[in-house]
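Students often ask what a holo structure prediction actually looks like on paper. The answer is less mysterious than it sounds. You provide the chain, you provide the ligand, and the output is a string of discrete structure tokens encoding the 3D arrangement of the protein together with coenzyme A.
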Amino acid sequence: MECHVRPARPDEAAAVAELASATFPLACPADMGEDDIRDYSEGHLTESHFAAHLADPDADVLVCDGDGLVGYALVFHGEGARPSPEFGVTAAPASFLSKCYVRPDAHGSGVAKRLLDAAAATAAARGSTGLWLNVNYENFRAMRFYEKHGWRHTGYTEFKVGQRVHRDPVYEFRLHGADLRGEDSGT
Ligand SMILES: CC(C)(COP(=O)(O)OP(=O)(O)OC[C@H]1O[C@@H](n2cnc3c(N)ncnc32)[C@H](O)[C@@H]1OP(=O)(O)O)[C@@H](O)C(=O)NCCC(=O)NCCS
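The corresponding structure tokens follow.
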């Protein structure tokens, strides 16, 4: 798929929010209620949320721009991004990969890996030695994706979607020795 990974522009908050709301249900378990998904989207994935992330010096919003935006990643750095000790993350300091979402027609295309590499490059640029994330316990595709790219399961955290609290697996990626690419030209 032809696409280019780059930082989102300040005027793209609405476009990234649309992408985020469209793809968030893909990461949810099949029995997740529409109300809970809507609550989460309204509480975390609106234009104003992404406008704030785009203005946050401790955040990077990356997009894959092809025929429109096909995927995005959201990474947090700095003290607010540090994992709790009970998550078992060994990298320190570690950045937090909060989101890595790709439209379904680009799954299996390599777009997600390019976003992952660009997210890792932002962490390295901020002096982090690794990244961590949490993933839904039924999101087997995502877990396989992270594992095949060198991420390791370290522990668990709680993640609230609407009225439901999930026990999400936590994964980490150590940057030492990683072959990182930032923005790319795509193929
Ligand atoms: C997670 C995501 C970014 C991964 O990107 P992708 O392009 O789909 O990933 P890939 O196709 O490279 O890898 C997925 C792997 O999972 C495997 N897989 C697919 N369905 C699976 C399942 N039900 N159980 C186990 N493995 C599965 C695929 O076969 C592939 O492994 P392989 O390359 O060894 O064959 C993408 O699927 C996505 O955006 N999903 C929706 C949003 C999401 O869940 N984001 C992550 C939130 S933490």
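The mean pLDDT is 94.
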